[in-house]
């Protein structure tokens, strides 16, 4: 039994006329009659009562028609799901991200992806850069948002966001009312920093920035998450150098100040396995690039055309 036999049957069941059914199927009437006979022989029961005046479904034919219609609905659904999956529009995507990513580019990318591809289920994991590299190698996540550098030939990455570093101070600090801060003025302050192992690129950039100002930071407290670092600053345990987007974390007791000295920018990169052929991953990368481009255009427009007072 082939699908075409079932299609012949369904068309005849709808028309109840061999001539009209054959015309719809673009075949001659005798071959259609022959195919229906062969189907009935294979099934072991009659599908139609035939007379010179009319064609009618038998009781068994009607029951068979109902079941066949369900089969074709399921088949159409399977085809649709297959097509959507091949376009990366269905399935699941597991995403890793560093703790600072939700304060810059990540929310916009996720919002754009969810609105464009609502049938893909997202699973998110907050992980350090090194954890994400390991999880990618173990296929536990599909894509990640990390702090470069990335030194792994099995992984692809693209820089999607760059930002300056700023200083987080307790709001009671003597420099809290300054518009910006010279790094040399905080060289004797206790610093709060994360362990280098968690994000070597960002860690080295912070240390290098201090050394260029003529000192090595006195790290008196370590914390893993950026949110925790900011909370400890609010508690008066020290100061911290953090990515600029952390200003979006509005925490009582903390003020953020620009650094007077010129600073290199820290980056967020999107990362995925080189050998990953998943259409869903490719769709996510496509939408992420588009979201980043649109955000850049919006920011540029705001800078060029500020609102009038």
UniProtKB/TrEMBL annotation:
Domain HTH lysR-type residues, every copy = 1-58
Query: Would the keyword DNA-binding turn up in this protein's UniProt record?
Result: yes
Is Lipid biosynthesis among this UniProt entry's keywords?
no
SUPFAM superfamilies recorded for this chain?
Periplasmic binding protein-like II, Winged helix' DNA-binding domain
Q: What keywords sit in the KW lines?
A: DNA-binding, Transcription, Transcription regulation
Entry-linked InterPro entries: LysR_HTH_N, LysR_subst-bd, WH-like_DNA-bd_sf, WH_DNA-bd_sf
Q: Which PROSITE patterns match?
A: HTH_LYSR (PS50931)
GO cellular component terms given for this protein: protein-DNA complex
Pfam name, any one? LysR_substrate
Q: Which GO terms describe its molecular function?
A: DNA binding; DNA-binding transcription factor activity
Q: Which family does it belong to?
A: Belongs to the LysR transcriptional regulatory family.
Q: What is this protein called?
A: LysR family transcriptional regulator
Species = Hassallia byssoidea VB512170
């Amino acid at each position: 039994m082939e699908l075409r036999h079932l299609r012949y049957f369904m068309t005849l069941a709808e028309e109840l006329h061999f001539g009209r059914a054959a015309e719809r199927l673009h075949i001659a009437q005798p071959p259609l009659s022959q195919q229906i006979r062969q189907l009935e022989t294979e099934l072991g029961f009659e599908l139609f009562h035939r007379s010179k005046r009319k064609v009618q479904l038998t009781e068994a034919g009607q029951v068979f028609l109902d079941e066949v219609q369900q089969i074709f609905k399921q088949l159409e659904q399977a085809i649709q799901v297959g097509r959507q999956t091949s376009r990366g529009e269905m399935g699941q995507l597991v995403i890793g991200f560093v703790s600072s990513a939700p304060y810059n580019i990540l929310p916009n990318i996720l919002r754009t992806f969810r609105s464009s591809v609502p049938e893909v289920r997202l699973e998110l994991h907050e992980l350090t850069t090194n954890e994400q590299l390991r999880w990618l190698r173990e296929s536990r996540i599909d894509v990640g948002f990390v702090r470069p550098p990335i030194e792994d030939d099995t992984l692809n990455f693209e820089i999607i966001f760059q930002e300056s570093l700023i200083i987080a101070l307790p709001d009671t600090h003597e420099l809290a009312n300054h518009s910006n801060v010279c790094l040399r003025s905080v060289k004797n302050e206790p610093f709060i920093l994360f362990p280098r192992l968690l994000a070597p690129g960002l860690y080295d950039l912070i240390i290098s920035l201090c050394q260029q100002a003529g000192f090595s930071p006195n790290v008196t407290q370590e914390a893993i998450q950026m949110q925790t670092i900011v909370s400890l600053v609010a508690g008066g345990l020290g100061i911290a150098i953090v990515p600029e987007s952390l200003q979006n974390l509005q925490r009582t007791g903390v003020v953020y100040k620009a650094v007077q000295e010129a600073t290199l920018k820290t980056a967020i990169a999107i990362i995925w396995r080189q050998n990953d052929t998943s259409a869903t991953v490719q769709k996510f990368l496509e939408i992420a690039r588009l979201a980043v481009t649109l955000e850049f255009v919006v920011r540029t427009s705001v800078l060029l055309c500020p609102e009038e007072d």
